[in-house]
Amino acid sequence: MTPRNERRYSELLRVARVGDDAWLSQYEAARQLDIAVHRVGVLIACGHLVPAENAAGSAGVTIASVQAEKTWRDNATYREKALRLLKDTVGFF
Hints:
Elements: H1 9-13, E1 16-17, E2 23-25, H2 26-33, H3 37-45, E3 51-53, E4 59-62, H4 63-75, H5 78-92
Parallel strand pairs: 1-3
Antiparallel strand pairs: 2-4, 3-4
Helix pairs in contact: 2-3
């Protein structure tokens, strides 16, 4: 077994490696979604953003998932947002 401090992001989450043209850092994703960086991790854990590595092995998310999340946020009703929050909260526990 690999020591914990030597494990890569992809080994922990089994993420896909994508090209730089399909990848965003978590900081850039947070900026585009206008949220805090830790919230990106929550969205990954809940399945709303797709984790990915770029060619250099850096952790991030796919551009497509960020665009889908942005579209959902722009178009979702208050009720849909509340239901999603409830589902994510229940799923967390």
